[in-house]
């Protein structure tokens, strides 16, 4: 559940029966973090908050939100050579706070004209005020840190107001059902689909079926054998990569002869590089604490693709992202 209180309750129900954990969402994961640390359970967070990389009990993968913003600003400004007016609309939670960190670091590094930062609360449904302020500031590029429902409503509000900047979505703001009702290519498009075409996404996993991705053929073969009814989904790809990370940690613990929670933690912290074959950026665990990845996979929404995404930049790392550190 994406409710912190429910997340804590569910964790308490299962904690005595598990060796590892997957935890969905930045705020819910933060809510159970002290318990994870007390119970010594290695956890793969299904979120992209920058601080995760500093906690040895967490096994994050994917580029953090702050670094995604740094990279996409480098991309749209051509490393600072161009000076568009850029703004941020974000959900006021842990994920949003990380995007604000990245946005402010990008503004300092690249000196773009700032259209401002417009927050909204979880559960909000009307985004006219935030979009109107972006329009009044002349924003050329607007980055949206949100879940899919609010992201679609924000872009829809822009279309209603005749405001069509270059929208950029964080990865979790996109889901295939934004394009068609059942999320499958070839089905009837949703009312927002046309407005989404060409929107950039700092995505967390490779587009479905991309032949340039070394691990795609094996993933599709496994999907056909074990989940034949699964439609193309970038979330399936990310989950598959997470499972590869969990398997690598457990394989190391087995090789070390210790499958206790302490042994699994020791395996994770000494694992080293994990080759995810382009499905998501490779990760390294052990040594100096760092972000799981500093490069961003920049994609564009494209209704002609099986998963509605095509790669623009497969591994883009701007100058500011190379040296970024959490304060």
Automatic annotation (TrEMBL):
Keyword Transmembrane included in the entry's annotation: no
Domain of life: Bacteria
Residue span, Leucine-binding protein domain: 11-295
InterPro entries in the cross-refs: Leu-bd (IPR028081), Peripla_BP_I (IPR028082)
KW Cell cycle (keyword) present: no
UniProt keyword terms in alphabetical order: Signal
Entry similarity comment: Belongs to the leucine-binding protein family.
Protein name as annotated: Leucine-binding protein domain-containing protein
Organism of this sequence: uncultured Blastococcus sp
């Amino acid at each position: 559940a994406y409710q912190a209180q429910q997340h804590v309750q569910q964790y308490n129900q299962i904690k005595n029966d598990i060796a590892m954990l997957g935890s969905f969402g930045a705020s819910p994961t933060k809510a159970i973090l002290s318990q994870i640390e007390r119970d010594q359970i290695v956890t793969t967070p299904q979120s992209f908050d920058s601080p995760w990389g500093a906690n040895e009990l967490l096994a994050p993968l994917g580029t953090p939100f702050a670094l995604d913003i740094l990279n996409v600003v480098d991309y749209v400004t051509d490393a600072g050579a161009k000076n568009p007016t850029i703004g941020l609309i974000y959900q006021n939670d842990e994920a949003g706070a990380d995007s604000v960190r990245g946005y402010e670091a990008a503004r300092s590094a690249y000196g773009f004209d700032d259209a401002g930062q417009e927050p909204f609360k979880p559960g909000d449904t009307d985004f006219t005020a935030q979009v109107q302020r972006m329009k009044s500031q002349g924003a050329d590029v607007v980055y949206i840190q949100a879940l899919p429902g609010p992201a679609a409503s924000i872009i829809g509000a822009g279309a209603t107001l005749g405001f069509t900047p270059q929208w950029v979505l964080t990865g979790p703001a996109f889901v295939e059902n934004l394009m068609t009702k059942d999320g499958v290519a070839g089905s009837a498009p949703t009312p927002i689909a046309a407005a989404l075409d060409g929107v950039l996404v700092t995505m967390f996993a490779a587009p479905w079926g991309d032949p340039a991705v070394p691990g795609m053929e094996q993933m599709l073969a496994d999907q056909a054998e074990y989940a034949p009814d699964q439609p193309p989904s970038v979330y399936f790809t990310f989950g598959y990569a997470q499972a590869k990370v969990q398997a690598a940690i457990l394989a190391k613990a087995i090789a070390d002869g210790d499958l206790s929670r302490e042994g699994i933690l020791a395996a994770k912290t000494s694992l080293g590089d994990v080759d995810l074959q382009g499905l998501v950026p490779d990760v390294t665990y052990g040594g100096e604490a760092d972000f799981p990845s500093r490069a961003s996979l920049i994609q564009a929404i494209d209704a002609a693709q099986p998963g509605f995404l095509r790669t623009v930049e497969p591994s883009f790392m701007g100058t500011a992202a190379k040296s970024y550190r959490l304060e």
